Sequence to fold (347 residues):
Amino acid sequence: MNLDEVFDYAIDQEINAMEFYERSAAQTDNAEAAALFRSLARMEAAHRRALENEKEIIAGAGAFKAPKNEQPSPEDERVTSLERMTGVLKEANVELTNRHRRVQAELETAGQIQEALLPRKAPQLPGLSISVSCSMAEQIGGDYYDFLLTPRGLLAFTIADVSGKGLPAAMLMMAMRTLWRSKIREDESPHLVLESMAAESTAELQQNDQFVTMITAAYDVDAHRLTFANGGHWPPLVFFTGDDDFTPMPTGWLPLGLNESDEYTDHVLDLPPDSLVVLYSDGILDAANPEGERFGESRLRKLILDSKDLDSDEIRDSVATAVFEFSRGRQQDDETLIVIKRLSSPC
Fold:
């Protein structure tokens, strides 16, 4: 193999690597991995151009045709080609390792921040039992829930699902948390909270091709009255003692990020003893078994109806266990569940 062939071989390797990274970026659902693969593809393309330029310069100097008395031996050519290829591979490996470390450090930091921001357990108020579970599909995710006691003593809470996964979704979740907490303190009316959030966040969400589904609610402990507004999220499952099925809830209006002037509606529920309210993210419904079958809303509804007489912790655990067993532990999306049960007597 002469020097000309060595360059052609090295250039072909760069082209193959570039195409491999481009295919990998197109096939992965992980936004951080896709960005890394695209960056590596650009790096391989730059290496290819550098080799092509170097080949052109050397060719112009006549180096591919050694003087008759200085014809390199096959061994010299083999050593030269190996050194050049080894150098290229080392450079690529160092860049890949450094980028991987930076990405991992960013993910770990974001994951720690997100874990610190999500409530570790739900507040327990007289006459009310609340249980929560939240499982992220990746190191960080886009599901969000929160609880806050307002200045008037109402229990405000929310559940949200931001578009996307990984770091971009987590960063958006953190921003929406700050915005929701600010707005719920200004006005406890859930529909006004959503309208204000839509007005302030839509332009930036559209710029980044993102949106957020959200339910925000306020619970009056003294009156046992729940008021909620729905921005494109799955409607809550509400069960009243003595009924045979869930009470139909209106579907949510548009998610945040589609229209900055959206108008939302408050829905008011008076909760008698033993009534049940369940809020959830679509990761629970979309959990799939190895055959590709979804867990689905009908399974969730039947499961909760069958366990409605249990306490909120037991209902939460029964759902989490059923979803895990159905999907054989293969989680593809964030899964969040909030179970609220009005107790028969204050405790």
The CA atoms of residues 32 and 103 lie 8 Å apart. Helices lie at 3-27, 31-60, 74-117, 166-186, 190-207, 282-285, 296-306, 312-326. The chain has a mean pLDDT of 81. The first helix runs from residue 3 to 27.
